[in-house]
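Problem 12. The chain below contains 152 residues. Write out its predicted structure in token notation.
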Amino acid sequence: MFITLWDTKMTKLEVIDSALKIGLGSLITAVSGYIILLLTQKHEIAKEEKTTAYKLNEHKKWLYVELLTQSQILVQTYYDNASNGKGEDYLNYLRIYNEVQIVTNNEIRHAAFELLTAVQQFIVIRKEGQERNLLLEMRKRIDKAIAFFQCI
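Solution.
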């Protein structure tokens, strides 16, 4: 013979005991699930922050190399003649410079500005008829600005 739930008589104490066991188990499950969710979210947020910082650093490295490369290209391109400041190469250089100014700290901004002004002065000056010593001094200033930017 089978005993059904309706056939058994439970006392009030047994009902309360069963309800507490079920409720306490559910409460423990809910709290542990919530804590695990919080820990997982914190881990995911930290992981995302690290990834973002790494991507930003990689982009900054690319910008720095590009600024240095474009500086040297402009100096070599306009070594014997003057730039009118309207060429695609110079405008691209300004775009890179401005991006460096936006995404970096003040020390690097200052070094990039020094490099920009040294390069600008050299590429726009008329080379014919200039004293060779003046051009050499300008070139030394560019080399110093490049070295200073690389040190930072």
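Discussion. Residues 16 and 87 are 86 Å apart (CA to CA). Students who got a different answer should revisit the alignment rule from Section 12.3.
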